[in-house]
User: Fold this.
Amino acid sequence: MRAMPDPFVFDRSALRLRRDRAADALPRVAGLLGEVAERLTETLDAVRRPFARALDLGGRGVVAPRLRARGIEVIEAALSPRQAAAGGAPVVVADEEILPFAPSSFDLIVANLSLHWANDLPGALIQLRRSLRPDGLFLASLPIVGTLGGLRAALTEAEAELTGGASPRVAPFPDLRDCAGLLQRAGFAMPVAERDEVRLRYADPLALLRDLRDAGETNALRLRERRFAPRALFPMALSRLPAEDGRITATLRLALLTGWAPG
Assistant:
């Protein structure tokens, strides 16, 4: 009998711990997180209807203020107790995979860079759709295939040279082609998945790793290597990233998702 793939790719307890530890560092990456949030919430400018009550799912302090500035009541939910209060809105500590909200609780849900660690993304999307009122709007941003591709390859090559093998250190991401299909499977009407890109440049290559740590985005794969990495691993890998004018470039490829709860 053929073995079924393990559906539990991510260690949610480790992710919660990383987000807790990163709570105090969020101001250092607020600019990056806020840039993605701004691109996502710009969609509201083209929607000719008011929203009264919104859920900010894992917004890390950059989504809730933008929604409140539009006169929208906001409830913020996050996996990390310490990060849940970052936006200053009423907060709920909640796992994105097991949402505690009743059906038709919100007429707007925004999930900014918060669903890519879900083991059951289709199931999470179904719960989010059920939490929307009829004709409610869902907005989300997700990293997709190609994000941090250079870092992934450099880490794999460097670790293979140092140890003769390599453990996974960068999370797998969905393909853009699949994102609209996931929304449709979850029951959203008029699903749209648009590609966007954020290019980051660093004079100090280690600053890339610090930003990932400060955002709570370090390795939470269940099959990650639990031992300390070889001391030479990260300097060797970072030295192999392409540089231009003395700066390395990291690319975040994103899917900006839009879907409506059926009326």
Notes: The domain at 12-147+172-201+251-260 is CATH 3.40.50.150 (Rossmann fold).
